[in-house]
Amino acid sequence: MILSAFVDDSGSDEASRYFVLAGYVMQAPFWEAFSDEWASGLRREPTIEYFHMADAEYGDGNLKGLGEPLRKLKVNELSDVISKFEPLAVSSWLSWESYRKIARANIHPKIDSPYAVLFYQVMRAVHEFQIKTNPQGKYHRVDFVFDDQSKIGFRALQWYSALKTAAPEPYKSMMGVMPVFEDDKKIVALQAADMLAWHVHRELEHPEEK
To answer: Can you name the residues that pair with 9 across neighbouring β-strands?
Structure first.
């Protein structure tokens, strides 16, 4: 069995206090049905082409012109799709302040990026979950799809090759094919990851909110 993970980011701008990578993991065959239902939710009135959580919160971009009740309705309808399929949620985060004080300029230039730290850790979280929940050692390969990151995405692929070469078992067996970077406007599973990443980031930035 192969697992597929879809991961997006939030807070990549240093104006934020935290940088988050988060997403969902599920058996690969279930993602097709998930994507069909998510796409149906996008088409349901009020119809939108794609979903970004920040647009839903602030009424921007693809949801510009929609009142708050309609934006909340769309969020609730799409979250119901996530609830129905119950994928594993995974997230990794760090504070920009900690990165600047501890890591920046103190690690190898090839991985001197907060994205590098989170890229590794979000994968490790999925692998550690398998180890924790499968004491018999029946681990599954995990293929990762990340939101497009331009130049940093190309560097991440270089990191992955080196990591897979050096990784001990059982991690090596769980590491799937080379991660791919896709446009979240086209891959609806990444839109679900965007929703999760936004909420994890929002909770870190505003812990006083419900």
So the answer is: 21
